[in-house]
Task: inverse folding
């Protein structure tokens, strides 16, 4: 009876279905899929806004790969990624473990740690520029109290990127903490009960139950964090504009500058595709080497 | 694991947490608990310190900002900084713009995402799987990749320096929202849908009377994230807007920085104006923010 009903209403539903999907599919096609493909075509053209595009083959890619600033931006983006990922994961996992313990006021702490996540990166980057101020910033004033002469943070070639990384960890740790916390709470209690009967200490519990059981969550966070870190822009635009001496010049900033300061649309499109390919490759490599992830 | 992918059942999570607390409580010494509180208190304080310092600076006069050693409580308290930050640049207008864009985007994408999510979860039609996979694939395309052609498209159709590029694409719904809603509607028993159909409801009526009233938790999560994403977006407004009266809050903050590069009390007043309302809303509704992530943060 049910299958008969289903077969009979199939054609009737079809038009409803297409009608219901039309806004989403229209949006995905016009504003995502078509532009992504268009980017590829534009990347093979010389296109200054206002004039007609002309086909120049792989010239944009050749030019970009011969450009020292491209390699510097790539290195800086890699530096940012390698710097922020372990730090962010460690901090957010530690916070999640602490908040998973049976103590009071957990909601209070959680509210505090998650607070930066809801804020606009532009506004908090402005606040951090003030905290990092070499002469009057609260960070150097606090360091001076314990007898340390703080560096120029954002004005120092050596410290600018670590400063951006620290600010970004602060901004993003609460998000990963909450996901880790959900992962921790999904681990079946009987595993810990069994371990307790076997006389396991907290370290072997952590090593042999928590970490493996948490690995799908860790993998998910790793994937989205790396994708996000390749797209870092707002805090860099606000705090350093890529400086000093291009020490924080990252790929998205270069795309932005090429397209909207110098109006080299073709070259910007080429770099956007390079960024896309890098992100896809890094993601695929992670899936390829994901045997450490333990699925129930 | 697979059946809880996408949508977790909060009640179950809480009860298992409560049980674990019971197990652990016996094992955690009073000293251990005290130490943990100390560590959390210090870390928590360090986390909110930037906001406190922002508030403190925002109420100082231009001269007392640079006094050493710095004072946490400003003396005198200069409320005028807020007035000046509010009036010097059209900050009120920026609020109106951001609010307008955020509300339309949220309302639009909630409608389109729930409708599409319901369609993928419950309706039978040819091409269902292909379309769904294609839609999911768009999730992997980063916004920067589509930026250049979008800009060119918008300049041809006259959308540059209007709010349309910030409203129309996201209001048409994204793959993420559709995916989230589909996962949720899959858990609603088919009997409900069948009963409505036998009573003579068409798919639209079923969506409106059965699905919409049942979609509470994921919809509120989706609403929060959509609004937050729109409110905090920076690259979009930076690229597509030129006139100051059309600026959104983050863009207005960025232009403040250009104008008052060293007047830190005014800059912090501007940052406070941008952040305080958001923080108040967050603190009073923090449960929903966190629930949203727990609900949407899928477990691989």
Result:
């Amino acid at each position: 009876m049910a299958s008969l009903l289903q077969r009979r209403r199939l054609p009737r539903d079809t038009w409803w279905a297409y009608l219901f999907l039309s806004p989403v599919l229209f949006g995905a096609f016009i504003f995502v899929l078509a532009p992504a493909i268009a980017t590829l075509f534009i990347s093979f053209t010389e296109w200054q806004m206002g004039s007609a595009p002309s086909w120049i083959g792989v010239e944009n890619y050749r030019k970009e790969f011969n450009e020292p600033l491209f390699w510097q931006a790539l290195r800086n983006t890699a530096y940012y990624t390698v710097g922020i990922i372990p730090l962010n994961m460690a901090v957010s996992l530690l916070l999640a473990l602490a908040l998973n313990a049976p103590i009071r006021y957990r909601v209070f702490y959680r509210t505090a740690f998650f607070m930066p996540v809801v804020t606009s990166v532009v506004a908090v980057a402005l606040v951090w520029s003030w905290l990092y101020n070499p002469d009057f910033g609260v960070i150097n004033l606090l360091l001076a109290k314990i007898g340390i002469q703080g560096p120029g943070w954002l004005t120092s070639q050596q410290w600018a990127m670590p400063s951006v990384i620290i600010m970004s960890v602060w901004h993003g740790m609460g998000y990963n903490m909450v996901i880790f916390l959900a992962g921790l709470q999904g681990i079946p209690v009987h595993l810990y009960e069994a371990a307790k009967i076997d006389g396991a200490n907290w370290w072997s519990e952590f090593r042999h139950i928590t970490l493996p059981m948490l690995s799908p969550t860790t993998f998910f966070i790793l994937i989205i964090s790396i994708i996000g870190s390749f797209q870092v822009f707002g805090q860099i635009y606000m705090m350093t504009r890529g400086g000093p001496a291009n020490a924080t010049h990252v790929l998205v900033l270069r795309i932005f500058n090429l397209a909207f300061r110098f109006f080299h649309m073709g070259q910007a499109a080429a770099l956007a595709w390079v960024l896309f390919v890098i992100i896809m490759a890094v993601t695929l490599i992670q899936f390829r080497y994901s045997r450490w992830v333990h699925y129930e | 694991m697979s059946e809880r992918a996408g949508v977790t059942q909060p009640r179950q999570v809480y009860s298992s947490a409560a049980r674990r607390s019971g197990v652990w409580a016996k094992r955690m010494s009073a000293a251990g608990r005290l130490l943990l509180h100390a560590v959390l208190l210090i870390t928590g304080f360090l986390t909110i310190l930037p906001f406190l310092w922002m508030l403190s600076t925002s109420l100082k006069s231009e001269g007392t900002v640079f006094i050493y050693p710095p004072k946490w409580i400003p003396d005198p308290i200069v409320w005028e900084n807020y007035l000046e930050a509010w009036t010097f640049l059209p900050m009120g207008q920026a609020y109106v713009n951001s609010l307008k864009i955020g509300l339309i985007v949220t309302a639009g994408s909630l409608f389109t995402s729930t409708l599409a999510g319901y369609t993928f979860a419950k309706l039978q039609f040819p091409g269902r799987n292909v379309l769904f996979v294609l839609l999911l694939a768009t999730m992997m395309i980063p916004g920067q990749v589509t930026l250049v052609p979008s800009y060119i498209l918008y300049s041809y159709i006259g959308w540059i320096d209007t709010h349309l590029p910030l409203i129309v694409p996201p209001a048409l719904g994204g793959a993420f929202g559709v995916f989230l809603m589909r996962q949720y509607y899959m858990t609603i028993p088919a009997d409900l849908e069948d009963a409505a159909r036998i009573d003579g409801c068409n798919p639209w009526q079923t969506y409106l009377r059965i699905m919409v009233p049942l979609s509470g938790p994921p919809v509120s999560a989706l609403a929060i994230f959509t609004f937050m994403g729109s409110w905090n977006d920076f690259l979009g407004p930076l690229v597509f807007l030129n006139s100051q009266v059309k600026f959104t809050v983050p863009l207005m903050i960025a232009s403040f920085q250009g104008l008052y590069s060293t007047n830190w009390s005014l800059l912090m007043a501007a940052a406070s104006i941008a952040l305080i309302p958001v923080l108040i809303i967050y603190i009073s509704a923090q449960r929903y923010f966190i629930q949203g992530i727990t609900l949407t943060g899928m477990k691989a």
About this structure: Chain B has 15 helices and no strands. The mean pLDDT of chain B is 83. The CA atoms of residues 61 and 73 of chain B lie 12 Å apart.
